[in-house]
Design a protein that fits this description.
Elements lengths: L1 E6 L4 E8 L3 E9 L1 H5 L6 H35 L21 E7 L3 H18 L3 E5 H7 L5 E2 L19 E6 L4 E6 L5 E6 L5 H11 L6 H9 L23 H14 L11 H4 L2 H30 L3 E5 L6 H10 L4 E2 L3 H4 L4 H12 L19
Parallel strand pairs: 1-4, 3-6, 4-5, 7-10, 10-11
Antiparallel strand pairs: 1-2, 2-3, 7-8, 8-9
Helix pairs in contact: 2-3, 4-12, 5-6, 5-7, 5-9, 6-9, 7-9, 9-10
Bound molecules: 5'-O-[(R)-(carboxyoxy)(hydroxy)phosphoryl]adenosine (KG4) and zinc ion.
């Protein structure tokens, strides 16, 4: 069963084809991140406009890549010397190879979601394919079920774990919009253990980077700056909440701001926009390292407490912040349960995770969405 996934919840326009929920045939991502970098964050209107421009070429490329790869494999198997793209020449319609479409319908930016959802609805009707509505946050975890890929030059840079995660799975989903701790009993049955009551951890990475004058997106910039700083230079608070698996990062963000103002020799009225000029590069590195240390400790403390209670057979850390090198290293050191990370290219927003979740919805008997009525749900919950 081959599923075409479509993802447009934020600033990435993405399409991918996945076979049987584990084999990646293509993965195309067009990001408008450069357009947002000058503003230090995603501008919803710019993101939506750029999805309109990219969505059709991105889907076309995902289909072309998928079946070019497939034709290479067929050629290798039959040892017949087929012309390089004979499969794609006259008479071959990649849509005949697609069994269903899966699209992110929330949560996310309304303008961005609308482009993906309306494109998927139109294609589902025009090509007569079942349509699966996907929750973006849940999909992040499903990137970890991809264990094989087609032999294609486009997928060379992606490496996959070769073993399937085992249930029960404890998943930490950390991205620019979400911080969730979820227990999966199987592919379709999960329990939300806790989530953030305010900012998502990735959002705080982005805001701290902005305070320090580091380039957007903040995650990779902080990760890099932190490597030359002292993680114990500044003591920062960890929020205590009633739910031991809940998160709150807005207090940490304010504490970083106050520490930065103090280090620069100013008081709490000093404007954050002037901090990049007022701090030395050594001070910036210490702030980045101390912030990153506290944020990661907070995430891993909760993950560890949940692991002790629920005794998972696998731990999955997914979402954009799972690309963080320090988080990866520390989690591997801290747990005896296998910790699985999707490849960095599959941690940030992509459509392969959407197609994978779509497959499991399809085989687990979930009813497809009505392509005439499916709506974008910006506030969709897990
Ligand atoms: O999953 P994602 O691509 O989009 C959302 O669904 O939000 O995550 C984007 C977030 C951004 O906040 C970005 O700063 C963060 O992931 N991120 C990182 C790293 N790479 C991306 N955070 C920490 N360390 C990184 N290396
Ligand atoms: Zn995401």
């Amino acid at each position: 069963m081959r599923i075409l996934g479509i993802e447009t919840s934020c600033d990435e326009t993405a399409a991918a084809v996945v076979e049987d929920g584990y084999k990646l045939l293509s993965n195309v991502v067009a990001s408008s991140v450069d357009l947002h970098a000058v503003y230090g964050g995603v501008v919803p209107e710019i993101a939506a406009r750029s999805h309109i421009e990219s969505i059709i070429p991105v889907i076309d490329k995902a289909l072309k890549d998928a079946f070019e790869a497939k034709s290479y494999e067929l050629r290798a198997k039959s040892k017949k010397l087929l012309a390089k793209d004979s499969k794609l020449s006259a008479g071959f319609d990649p849509w005949d190879q697609i069994d269903a479409i899966a699209v992110t319908h929330g949560p996310g930016l309304i303008g961005s979601l609308l482009i993906g959802v309306l494109t998927a609805r139109t294609l589902a009707i025009a090509k007569n394919k079942p349509l699966y509505a996907i929750n973006h946050v849940q999909a992040h975890v499903f990137a970890a079920f991809l264990t094989k890929k087609a032999k294609s030059s486009e997928l060379k840079a992606i490496s996959l774990n070769n073993r399937q995660p085992k249930f029960p799975i404890l998943a930490l989903i950390v991205s620019g919009g979400h911080t969730q701790l979820v227990l999966f009993r199987n592919h379709s049955n999960y329990k939300l253990l806790g989530q953030t009551t305010d900012d998502a951890v990735g959002e705080v990475y982005d805001k701290v980077a902005k305070m320090l004058g580091l380039p957007y997106p903040g995650g990779p910039s902080i990760d890099k700056a932190a490597s030359s700083g002292d993680p114990l230079a500044i003591k920062l608070p960890k929020a205590k909440l009633e739910n031991p698996y809940g998160f709150s990062f807005s207090g940490l963000k304010t504490a970083v701001l106050r520490a930065a103002q103090e280090l620069s020799g100013n008081n709490y009225t000093f404007p954050s926009t002037e901090l990049p000029q007022a701090l030395s590069s050594g001070q910036k590195a210490d702030i980045a390292a101390s912030f990153q240390y506290t944020a990661i400790q907070t995430l891993l403390d909760k993950l560890e407490a949940a692991a002790q209670q629920y005794k998972p057979k696998s731990i999955i850390i997914a979402g954009g912040v799972a690309a963080n090198q320090a988080l990866r290293k520390q989690a591997l050191e801290r747990f005896t349960t296998p910790v699985i990370y999707p490849d960095i290219k599959l941690c940030t927003d992509n459509a392969a995770m959407v197609a994978t979740l779509g497959y499991f919805q399809a085989i687990n008997g979930q009813k497809p969405a009505d392509p005439y009525v499916l709506e974008a749900s910006p506030g969709l919950k897990m």
